[in-house]
Specification:
The protein is mostly beta strands. The chain is built from 1 helix and 12 strands; from the N terminus they run ββββββββββββα. The protein starts with 17 loop residues before the first strand and ends with a helix.
């Protein structure tokens, strides 16, 4: 191909809603951070290791047993609460990974290996941190 000489209508792939099975004993709120645990099940965002952020919960969900209840979620870029003190995310951190504190908060560090990665920091403002949830990208960057 040759370089462009005019504007181009470049196709875009929008994040689509996805579904996965919940882990055991989960209580999910719509709009919360979801992560995938080592067993492949979706669990609410929490300080834990061995999981990766997958996106935003699209509905409320509860489960008692693992692998039974379906949960809708959507990858993409969403604003969540910023951590505080030494784990506060700032503009200079854009492009780096951030880590899950709970189902609505992200932090700059992995908390001395106690937190799982949420995604990539896409922006920071007075209301929080814009996190790009792309499980494959996050796994690739951190492996």
């Amino acid at each position: 191909m040759v370089a462009l000489t005019a504007d181009r209508n470049t196709p875009e792939l929008q994040p689509v809603e996805r579904e996965g099975l919940l882990g055991a004993a989960q209580s999910i709120f719509a709009g919360s951070i979801l992560m995938r645990n080592a067993s492949g099940h979706l669990i609410k965002g929490a300080t834990a290791t061995g999981s990766f952020g997958v996106g935003r919960a699209e509905k409320r969900g509860t489960s008692t047993s693992a692998g039974v209840t379906s949960q809708r979620y959507r990858p993409g870029t969403y604003r969540f609460a910023n951590s505080s003190a030494g784990d506060l995310i700032v503009t200079a951190d854009i492009g780096a990974a951030c880590y899950i504190v709970d189902d609505q908060t992200v932090a700059k560090t992995n908390g001395t290996n106690t937190r799982s990665p949420a995604g990539i920091i896409d922006g920071v403002d007075a209301l929080g941190v814009w996190v790009r949830f792309d499980e494959a990208l996050t796994r690739a960057i951190l492996s």
